[in-house]
Amino acid sequence: MKTDIHPEYNAIVFRDLASGETFLTRSTLTSEKTIELEGVTYTVLDVEISSASHPFYTGKQRIMDSAGRVEKFNQRFKGFGA
């Protein structure tokens, strides 16, 4: 690898704003904010949604009634184009 062309790869904390959950990982992303976890100061990056708050992963997703929507569409446009 060439020297001095790659970004720094450091430990960073991702904080989910919706649930307050934090994830410690490594990344090349940077931020001015810091947080202290287990006595160590890390850079923190706030995210709006993660697997801790996403409806698909939490099991709180809505199931839409697609059959009712199709019937409503057909009723609305049954005489159109005839």
Structural write-up:
With 82 residues, the protein is an alpha+beta fold. The protein has one domain (10-76). Helices cover 18% and strands 30% of the residues. The chain contains two helices and four strands. The protein has helices at residues 55-58, 66-76; strands at residues 10-16, 22-27, 34-37, 40-47. The protein has a four-stranded mixed β-sheet, with no helix packed on it. A hairpin with a 5-residue loop joins strand 1 and strand 2. The longest helix is centred in the last third of the chain and has 11 residues, at 66-76. The mean pLDDT is 82.
Structural class: alpha+beta
* Assembly type: single chain
Indicate how many domains the architecture comprises. Answer: 1
Largest sheet: 4 strands, mixed
Give the termini separation: 68 Å
Strand order of the largest sheet: 2-1-4-3
Total helical elements: 2
The count of strands amounts to: 4
Q: Averaging pLDDT over every residue, what do you get? A: 82
Please give the radius of gyration in angstroms: 23 Å
Global morphology: elongated
Return residue spans where pLDDT drops below 50 for at least 5 consecutive residues: none
Proportion in β-strands: 25-35%
Helix content estimate = 10-25%
Order of helices and strands: EEEEHH
GO molecular function: structural constituent of ribosome
Keywords: Ribonucleoprotein, Ribosomal protein
Protein name: 50S ribosomal protein L31
Pfam families: Ribosomal_L31
